[in-house]
User: What shape does this take?
Amino acid sequence: MEISDYIRILRKRGWIILVVALVAAASAYGFSKMQTPIYSAKVQLSVNPARLDWGLSNTLKDLLRNYATNIRTHSMAQKIIERPGGDVGPLDMKSDELLSRLFVNPESSTFTLQVEARDKDPQVAMHIAQTAGQIFVEDRDAWNQRQDKRDRVEVTIVDNVYNLGYTQYSPKTKINTLAGGLFGLLVGVLVVFFLEWLEMDIIRTAGDVERAAANVPVLGILPPATGDAPLASGEKRRQLIPRLRGSN
Assistant: This one.
């Protein structure tokens, strides 16, 4: 197909692409608004060895994954549930439910742990994240008291939920709407080319005749009979031009 063919298709059926894209974007927007918002709160923990020792530092990198596992245990979850804080009292949930909302990401390159909590109530999410960080720091302090000072590992909260606040984790309305519009645009293009494929064998104009006859020029067309529908706007009548072999 030539560029002119694509332009012709867009002029003829471009509205289909726009309608499908708008409907898909509107549907994605409406679906996002119907969902219950989930909020995220985070706490940043810094893990530091007592001395600058290469072996201790490398051991600590491996221990970060163990620390992340320790935070996401049922015993830790039960402590978080039972401890009130701020405007949030003891949580009315099971440890399994709390662990499904608690996430820990260890970062060995920076010796940090990111504790994240997600909940429909932003205050609950902040409470879970902050309490989990505080309890883990307390547990590490108690462990350090039983260790030699050179072998201690200090854990501190460098960014709490009051500094970081909370953000809406889902739904991402803008992203969903944009993705829906792009998906609708693609579907609209496929629909348009499918319709063109269905009408590929239908001949309506002289140009269609030339394309169907392998670009053999059309010498003429019959004028419409009385009562037939007039030619489409812009359609030029072609007069029959005799081409006799040997004639000038």
About this structure: Helices lie at 3-34, 54-71, 74-82, 95-99, 122-144, 161-164, 173-198, 206-212. The first strand starts at residue 38 and ends at 49.
